[in-house]
Amino acid sequence: SAAARHTTMRIASVQLDSKHANVETNIATVKRLLASLMSQASNTQQRDGRRHSDAHAHTPPNERRTERPVDLLVLPELALTGYVFRDHADIEPLLEVPGPVTTLHHQMPQGRSSLEFAADLARTLHCYVVVGFPERVNADEAATRPYDARPTNVRDEGPPPRSFHAYNSAALFDATGKLLHVFRKHFLYEDDKRWASQGPGFETIQLPGLGTVCVAICMDLNPFEFETSFEACELASFCVEQDVDLLIVPMAWLLPSDETSDAASAVSGPAKPSLSTINYWALRCLPFFDPTQSNAKASGQSSDAKPKYLLTANRTGTEGKSTFAGSSCVLQMKPNERPLLLESLGTREEGLLIVDLPIDKT
Question: How far is residue 19 from each of residues 79, 84, 360, measured CA to CA in Å?
Fold first, then answer.
C-alpha cells in the first residue's frame, strides 16, 4: 500500500461571553477575537491577487495551507443570541430562516443575522464555519432521514402544534459562504424545552479535507433526558458506527456548581480549564477509544487506527442564573488509548483556540 502522507488540518474554536439577545454586541466580540485571523486572511488574499473560485473552496486543506489561516472555525451554541430564554415568545424575534446567502438579510434587520455573519466569516477566512443559532422552520419541512437516538417509547412525541417549529440549530457554511447543512439539537436540555422542538436525529456530512464530520449540540453528548443508560453513549456510538473523523460540538455547557464560587475562581484563575468538565466530555466519547465499552458495531478498529477528534466550542460567562464552563478544547481519540487533550481554553476567558491536526493520506 502507498505510504501515508502526513498533512495538517487547522481547526479553531471561538469562546465568548454571549450577551443576551444582543446580536450586534456578540458579533463585535467575535470580530475582536478573530482580528488577527481576519488580518492574516486579508494579507494572503492581497498577496494572492485574485478571487478564490467556488471550485477552489473544495480543494483539500493541505493543498492550500498558505492561502488561509484556518480550515474550520466553530462558534458556540446560540453563539450570537445568548442561550437563556423564558419561552417561545422571548426568542421568537431572534429566530432565523436558513436559505440562500443572498436572501438572508431580507429575513432579519440588517446586521442582526447570525447566519449572514457566519457566511461572511466563511468567505473572509475562506474556511468552513459552524455557528449555533435559533432556527425557524415551517411545520411541513421537517426532515425524516437522520438517526433518531431517543428510546423507542418517546420517538413519536411530536413538537407542539404550531405553523412552524423552532429548533436549537447549528449551520455549516463552506469557504464560499454557501450554506451546506443545518444540524438540529436532538436531545434537549431543560432551557431548550421552553421554546425548541427536538431535532430529528444525529447526522454526518462528508467534507473535503476534513473527512466524515458530525455536528451535534451540547446536550446531545449527554444521555437522553439524563435517563438512559450512561454506558449507551448514544452520540459517540453513532459516530463510531458512522466512522466519524471529527465530532464538532457547539455548546452552552454549564460550569459544575462546586466550581462557580468566587473561592473556586480565585484558585483556578480565568485561564485554567474545568478539567472535570473536559474529563466528562471525554467519558461521553468512550466508544471512540474503548471499543469494548461501545454499543456501536465498529468495523476495522485496530491499534493502528487513525485518530478521531472531538472539538468543543463552549461559551463562557454568566447569563441569568447560568454560569458556563468555557474550557473549549480538542481531544484526540484512538482505540485502546487514553484520550489526549491537545489544547483547551480557560473557564472564564474569552479567546480563540487553534489546533493543527495531522491528516493521514494514503
Answer: 9, 10, 40
Average pLDDT over residues 189-209: 97
Which of 46-60, 175-189, 209-223, 241-255 has the weakest average pLDDT? 46-60
Domain formed by 8-44+68-358, architecture:
4-Layer Sandwich (3.60)
- The answer to whether the beta carbons of residues 340 and 331 sit under 8 Å apart is yes
Length of the chain counted residue by residue:
362
Distance between CA atoms of residues 31 and 14, nearest Å = 10
pTM for this model (two decimals): 0.86
> How much is the average pLDDT of 169-193?
98
Q: What is the pLDDT of residue 286?
A: 97
Residues β-bridged to residue 330: 311, 343
Q: Which one-letter amino acid corresponds to residue 316?
A: T
- At residue 260, the pLDDT reads 87
Burial zone of 70 (CB within 10 Å; 0-12 exposed, 13-18 middle, 19+ buried): buried
Q: 118: phi > 0 → left, psi -120 to 50 → alpha, else beta; which?
A: alpha
Alpha carbon distances (Å) from 276 to 256, 258, 292, 318: 8, 11, 24, 19
First to last CA, the chain: 8
Q: Give the pLDDT score at 79.
A: 99
The string of DSSP letters for 95-158 reads -B----GGGHHHHS-TT--HHHHHHHHHHHHTSEEEEEEEEEEEGGG----SB--S-GGGTT-P
Q: How high is the pLDDT of residue 360?
A: 65
Look at residues 150, 137, 80 and name the one whose alpha carbon lies nearest to residue 111: 80
For residue 35, give the DSSP letter.
H
Residue 181: φ, ψ to 5°: -165, 155
Cβ contact 297:343 at 8 Å? no
